[in-house]
Write the structure tokens for this entry.
Amino acid sequence: MKFDTPATTNPIDQERVIGRAHDRIDGPAKVTGRAPYAYERHDAAPNPAYGWIVGSAIAKGTVGAIDTRDAQAAPGVLAVITHANAGKLGKGNMNTAHLLGGPAIEHFEQALALVVADTFENARAAAALVRIDYKPEQGRFDLAAERDRAVKPTGDSYAGRPDTATGDFDTAFHKATVRVDQTYSTPDQSHAMLEPHATTAAWKDDQLTLWTANQMIAWSLGDVARTLGIPKEKVRLISPYIGGGFGAKLFLRTDALLAALGAKAVGRPVKVAIARHQIPNNTTHRPATIQRIRLGANADGVIDAVGHEVWSGDLPGGEAEMAAAQTRLMYGGANRMTAHRLATLDLPEGNAMRAPGEAVGMLALEVAMDELAEACGVDPVELRIRNDVQYDPEAGPQRPFSSRKLVECLRQGAERFGWARRNRQPGQVRDGRWLVGMGMAAAFRNNLTTKSGARVGIDAQGRVTVETDMTDIGTGSYTIIAQTAAEMMGVELDDVIVRLGDSRYPVSAGSGGQWGANSSTAGVYAACVALRAKVAEQAGFAVEEALFENGLVRSGNKSRKLGTLAGREGIWAEDSMDYGDLAERYAQATFGAHFCEVGVDIDTGEVRVRRMSGAFAAGRILNPKSARSQVIGAMTMGVGAALMEELVVDKRFGFFVNHDMAEYHVPVHADIPHQDVLFVDELDDKSSPMKAKGVGELGICGAGAAVANAIYNATGIRLRDYPLTLDKLLAAAAGTALA
């Protein structure tokens, strides 16, 4: 099925099941321990051996020699895999660095060996006996130092061209009555998901099965085959349950490759998990940015000039962090420019983390907007309303937004939060020892859709089964897919069985880029349309007149039970939802508004978030319960980005120092108060037949900036280098309410 014209009335609009709050259908299996995760597949792969990864102790250079003799002689050791005996390996299309290093070393903690033993403890102990002779080389580890050598990336990325320009930015900015010209920085960040990267691998003859933690089954299936040099048909990936990802598990990682190599070497299943302390340096992270933002406006705050330049770094062959992507669509202004520059760094691979580009771009843009509001003497909410635009400001009115309810989010969110009670003068509100301030920021995340398929069937009992390689990383995919099938086929939610995360199922959108929910359910919609046609034909009804409800198909005064029509053989249909040019003809995005109140301790500079609220417009909300969970989780990550998250770079040796959960700080329960979420009513008929959009990443975009702006309102201190830690506040306290 192809979606190339706006959606009209369809069965989803009944909202009998869709659009209503439902508990997760996979919840009971998870809370009772019956949901099998990748490292726990004892049922499918009995008598496994265990692998422990030996990572590089240098960031750049070569391996002179690897001495594995002591390790091989250690108790229980079955094999030691290195580049010398692994055989010829390729590199996946989605990987920047090789997953097994040697002799060249591309980054710190790059895997150089895998020790396989009969127990986990024996593998770990023997790994300490591997001796590696290194030949270090000088690396580049400091983005600020490499900024002037950064270059324009070649080719387009998922977020479009690296540079854009409309009008005459330089002249307009120079002539503007009010100007903001500031530089902001964001640090490297780690995904820090609960479940580590983990895989259980087994071979049967030449057929490889990987039970692995992976967000994108089809992508990684191709990269496994490409790396091992075997046909895709010889590989099966199974990933029904994933303990969080945030982008870290989008691609093939070291655990999967080395588990496959280890299992081949020892002739039995092998389990490999990347140890927690190895993850930040071995896998991927959100790269640091330096961002210069220039805004030019008239005295009333109406913007005429918008400039956003971004510098980031990555390994050779990597991509830039597209942190100016949202600035191209966020606010009006006739004269505009954005630019991205990429420096070569020898740090571990930089790649996607929840809302890549926009998450860090909004940390800078929305603080700059707060600075512009103050310079113009305009309320920050009103400033954003004055600069709202209903079309792509780079393309002009010929490319309108498919739907854009930013103003509604701003107004409803402000009223709900009590924004009118805010004191505009910084540093004026006290509550005992706390300076209290309010801040706000807009939220933006592009709405992406991608082809997605599914197979749907009905059995003799009238139960509906859905099969698709879609994944659930804790986001609620099982439930919204079941809701879609129940709505389309006229059955109860309890009568739907959902099977996910297996490469033998039809290829789906996968979980990433905020496209998963909308795209995967649209794929199920397409398969259900095909199934409805088959059922109607079996019943002798015209499909356009058939009504599916209560486990029946009706036409006029006639009805047939779905189970009776399916019979012993069942009825199955498979289809995909593909997309035409609507996304080119219409700008598509999700919007919102964050509001935050903080307290800052007058003696220590400690920041406490006192309350948070947000209003969001993201098309039809498929399941308000799980959608709210997604948004408050994203808001929590926004607080982390604002106040504490930072991978600290040792610029001498090129590695992230705080590479575990003890030293990489993320928000905990005590850091997060009640979070209020409002979904603004919206249907987007140009997004998909579901009339939905993504929502999983919108909540992080702008949340941290709202915290930063609240800190300024509380103290009068404007910090522009994240995270906004108390040492930075105290260093800038002179002459402020915090002094």
About this structure: DSSP finds 18 helices and 30 strands in the chain. The longest helix spans residues 516-539. The CA atoms of residues 648 and 657 lie 6 Å apart.
